[in-house]
Amino acid sequence: MRRLPPLGSLRAFEAAARLQSFKRAAAELGVTPTAVSHQIRRLEAELGVALFVRQTRKVALTTQGRALLPPLRGAFDDMAEAIDALRPRTGRQVATLSATTALSARLLVPRIAGFRARYPGWDLRLHASDELVDLAAGEADAAIRYGRGPYPGLTALPLLTEGFAPVCSAHLAVRRPEDLAGATLIHLRGMPPALEAILPSWAAWARKAGLKTLDTDAGLSFSDETSAIQAVIAGHGVALLGLPLVAAELASGALVQPFGPRIEGLAYHLVYPANAAERPAVAVLRSWVMDELSAIRTPTPASTPGNG
């Protein structure tokens, strides 16, 4: 006879441990953070061990929690696959995710193989656009939005906080802020007004850096972030880029953030209709996006060569 704790407590622990947040787990499960905390305390009491170290603004797994997560997550994945296999098939299932063109190209497209391997019965449709889709009207199952929020009528799960800094090819002779006087500045202009209004400009960066004589109008201009990033990779100049979008190039050394200051941006959120949490397409997208994008890390200014 199997002696197992209540399924609700195990689900709450698995979600909180996987997402490293009671709040995110609550949004995924469609309950309150208090309910998640209660279920986990109930599980800890039954097992007689602490599964989380609770800190002021975050939680971390204990040794026992880290040991429990992999088999429990595998068990839930196996159950989901077995149940899904029993459902009548009327054709392949489609999950539609909307995101900005740059985020789609830079962070989602490179991870499509992982989606296909993880969900072989699903087709992924990426709607890449800098214009907002109407989720209530069914134009997409979920979306990744960048902005201040709030998002009325939508569940919003935080993914990434954007940070902007000068980025250039490692081959350019740009080591100090003063070197920008002899470099080509790359600008983002002509984007949708709502998006362009929340992206930092070279003029704003120069004010923060205290560079009063830098000509912040001259240079190359692009109307989309993807083209601007490609221009930087090709060595055509220096751009103020969102660091998560070039995390791979910064990690490999192909691009560098030679100096600060860094301008803090807004946040990316995964959003979907508040009443759609249990829809299969939403559940698939939520699991994939949260796992993939929440793991992205970018170098901090202090760890970037030449930054001061």
Automatic annotation (TrEMBL):
InterPro entries: LysR-type_TF_proteobact-type (IPR058163), LysR_HTH_N (IPR000847), LysR_subst-bd (IPR005119), WH-like_DNA-bd_sf (IPR036388), WH_DNA-bd_sf (IPR036390). PROSITE patterns: HTH_LYSR. GO terms for molecular function: DNA-binding transcription factor activity; sequence-specific DNA binding. It comes from the Bacteria. One of its GO terms (biological process) is DNA-templated transcription. Keywords: DNA-binding, Transcription, Transcription regulation. SUPFAM superfamilies: Periplasmic binding protein-like II, Winged helix' DNA-binding domain. Belongs to the LysR transcriptional regulatory family. This is LysR substrate-binding domain-containing protein. It comes from Ancylobacter mangrovi.
